[in-house]
């Protein structure tokens, strides 16, 4: 562990007495410092202030992205970006939030105290422009769009703990206090700036980074020349410290190829950046100059801190920090990586606040080969997808289809094919036919404990290995691989029941009947484990599986990851009546074919009904 210190008497006290340091220590060490560090109040009457920050590495020397997820305390704080409310939510923002929710749910299964933060960024030029275009004032516009985000998160089964709006008075108080602390540290100055400005990015661009006609490479729109008298943050002052952070803790930015990007930006030299706007009224006033408002990143990034405040608490920076900071994980799109992996750590260093443990920059979702975004006008509407296919299908497809961190492309044909194959067939059909056999031959009652005679059983051994594998994938934020691994349990269950052919054994009676009854219990135990292991991805589907196995919703909500251990189902346990847990999706071609076949059959004698394995 290495620590670089730039200190003052004032901020040394603030740092040693605050949660960023306390949270980085184990309980024994915390107690040691608590009992041994004390200062006279007279020491802190001086107005002298400068930054005191810690860049202690919390990862193993390997820098693996699972380092902080497998180590550390009982608290896990993760954030999505605070989404910009210039327009309603799109699939890109939904994707980030679905992924964050899966991670939060997995951490809760590990019995971590999770604080899952999301929210909306509601200040800036684009907001005022969007409100005017809709014939409303900015505050009304923000209320409508912020509510749209909340409604979508409900539709997608997003289990957030905190929803922060940057127009919240408590957030404004935290931002002003943070700004004042950085100002007192000598890291804010006033200057003129002239350059090419992207309204959509809300930042000045280097001409060398632009496309033809000075177009922004992200939004494909021309940047405009601007000259402003603004306040600037001395980012260049923190170049060496940022290099040290990444060298000591290579797991700070993930995936590793994103770390290479960040190191490249820093190596090329850091420029101070503007943190205020003289021409924008819709924002938080600069504390020392009410004619200017605080620029978006010096405002929105603080939402990760202000969100930690309870409604009943005094809105102060220190109170917020002591309520859960530092964050365990910032989950963002790669387009805002620079702000989270360069600007934000430097800002925190200046204010004497501990750094988050990890910044993970995922890729873009594309449609027709282009990034989806409100500014580009080619969005895929998540609300429409949920209404057509349900939240579990939407969650599963995007987390299974896209290797987390990389770009991914949406195709409705691929969507339907994957959902039908994985959820309706592999998992849904396995449960339905097994319960059907149990109902027909065992009155829906389990004959034995799932652990009885299971030692050495090939399915049990396979399931245990796959559960451990899925656990590692979740820890490493490999969400697609986690989905695939849980699906392998379903595949193994189907192979097992097909190989054992219990429908044949039941007909033979005697010991063969007993063997068949035990086989059904073993398959249903695998289904119980699937319901838990897949619950971070498809919480609704997992609940339906668990309910079919005779459990209540309350029991499902109480499960933890250790419940994936083999042996949960008990003899005498009564299963629910078999009901399909996931309906197969019919695309247009399938629907037309089915309709044509139905009409053809109706003109002739009624076709004989073929027997399924359950009825055979």
UniProtKB/TrEMBL annotation:
Reactions mediated catalytically: tRNA(Met) + L-methionine + ATP = L-methionyl-tRNA(Met) + AMP + diphosphate
Record-annotated Methionyl-tRNA synthetase anticodon-binding domain positions: 454-593
Sample GO molecular function, one term: ATP binding
Transmembrane segments: none
Composition-biased stretches (Basic and acidic residues): 604-616
Assigned EC number: 6.1.1.10
A Pfam family matched in the record: Anticodon_3
All copies of domain Methionyl/Leucyl tRNA synthetase, residue ranges: 208-435
Enzyme class: ligase
Alphabetized SUPFAM superfamilies for the sequence: Anticodon-binding domain of a subclass of class I aminoacyl-tRNA synthetases, Nucleotidylyl transferase
One Gene Ontology biological process: methionyl-tRNA aminoacylation
Annotated Gene Ontology cellular component terms: chloroplast stroma; mitochondrion
Record bears the keyword Ligase: yes
Keywords from the named record: Aminoacyl-tRNA synthetase, ATP-binding, Ligase, Nucleotide-binding, Protein biosynthesis
Ranges for region Disordered: 586-616
Family per record: Belongs to the class-I aminoacyl-tRNA synthetase family.
Protein name as annotated: methionine--tRNA ligase
Lineage of producing organism: Eukaryota, Viridiplantae, Streptophyta, Embryophyta, Tracheophyta
